[in-house]
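re: that chain from earlier
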Amino acid sequence: MCSISIFIVAFSLLKLSVCVYANQPIVRFKNRTVGILTDVDAGVFTATENVTILGDLEVKATNKTANIIEEVDSLIRLQSNVELRVNTFAQHANMGIVCNPEGTEYRKRNFETGEFGECVCKEGYTGEVCLLILLTDTPIWTLVFRHDSSEGDYFSNTNMWAEAKRTNPTIRNATKFSILDEVEQIGLINERYTFKLVYPEFEEGANTNIWSQASNPVTSGSAEGYKAIGIQHASSQDGQPFLGLHSEGAYGSTFLDGNPNGGWWFAVGARRSYGGSTSVPGFAIPTRITELYICLANCLILSP
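^ sequence. v structure.
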């Protein structure tokens, strides 16, 4: 009984046909269980091309039991989940978010609907597309809004400025681009937002305002905690000081602007032209192209 033997086990109930090599005997118990008994340091080897098992198969080791059938089912579910994610990524154009596969760890998921949400970035990556945070002292900016009104294209204020909050989110060079609805998600650092308002039509060095504020202009009617950092245009054409961005409400001429006491200079999301032209109120003079950036990393070195 202790010598190495070869057994053919034909167990019709389980439809199991397998060659078993063991250095201990096979035992059939009264409850129709077939077992292989070994010493503590003995081994069991199964050699077959095909094993069919109906029912649960459990493997027991010291103080631990693994249900093989459950583990296989789990792997199948994981495979299906991966397929769902791939399909979701393939349809990202309708979701408004494009993730960087290198920097994205996973997508947040709504388990009630099964839909995946925004990118969740790996450590060392940041932003709405999970860009690599460079080890540098240079602030990292990302574009959150762009408007080119040269062709007379403006934003609509319907549905509480839905278009100004989000439009063409994957086409940054579009005449109308906005991911302003992501400002809080990507740009709130140490309870503050750091913005850069740029007018590309004008000479570099005289076309930019950089500042920070505590309030999110997308949801706030005032620019709380405004701190100037690099202001090249401190006031508008009518002499009003620039004090950060705020929402103008549902019926304003623009979604956001930098004039807290009336007027709509430093407009972000204008719904009409200024003075009958294709321009919108920029800083001291009208402009056709407006770009707004938000700082993602290394923002503290900008503090005044």
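Residues 1-22, 90-96 have pLDDT under 50 and may be disordered.
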